[in-house]
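Narrative of activities, Objective 1.

The group set out to show that a structural description can be obtained from nothing but a protein's sequence at a throughput compatible with the screening campaign. Below is one input-output pair from the validation batch, recorded exactly as produced.
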Amino acid sequence: MNTSHISSIEDQNALVFTGNHLLGIEGLSAAEITSLLDLAESYVDFNRQEEKSLTTLCGRTQINLFFESSTRTQASFELAGKRLGADVMNMAVASSSINKGETLLDTAMTLNAMQPNLLVVRHGSSGAVKLLAQKVDCSVVNAGDGQHEHPTQALLDALTIRRNLGCLEGLTVAICGDILHSRVARSNILLLNTMGARVRIIAPPTLLPDHADRLGVEVFHDMRKGLKNVDVVMMLRLQLERMTAALIPSRREYFHHYGLDYDKLAYASPDARVMHPGPMNRGMEIASAVADDLNISLIHEQVEMGVAIRMAVLDALSRERSGGDQ
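Output recorded for this entry:
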């Protein structure tokens, strides 16, 4: 193993991060975001080595508490913790006492008694992760809460964009689809605006939040107009499980107007890249041919960047907590 490479990862003087938790992108400075992206860059290289074992979190306990299922995000956090040397436990919420009437605050007290160092939480209610963070003594990472935020997804998206296009400042990014229900969209809008990118959102009126124009974005209802000359096209999953009304006419009609295919992509910049946080509804949000086109699609790279970003976040929170305890 390249020990000089590992020592560069562990260089604490290069890190600019002041929080004990990562509950959202909101409130992070451009310097903090850049610092996390830079640290994650080191982990990208490390993860491509044959040996992928560090002692950064040796002796520390990480609990992944997912009230909503997400194979991709949970696996990514688990792999990140284990590669850093943490003891990682996944709590099976579906079979726990939480489903037997235990409140969120009871859960917080129970977890606190276990004395974990890191708690990764996904919950269906906006604000639930923040509430947990106020009741436990460890660092908390928001792995998605309701329609509020999904900070590590925005960070991994930013890392993917930066690695492929060189920067974030000055780029035009179109976020397309189910904006209304998307915590991914909210976190990406916050991050991209902070980093100096220009953000467009493209969706039918039924899938836009109230006062969408106040988010610091340009709003489009026509896919072709919205995609004109953009550098990045970020598609979103239609969250049918969160829809309490018929917000789209039909899947076929939705794809016709808002699904990404080569015809609509032709309106973007010739060098535009395509992204999707997954899981994809192929043939509804995006054509399979576009999603699988390695010349333009960054979807598989987003998954790889997810592990690196989550390693960087766990590392950064561990350093900040250790520094505060000394």
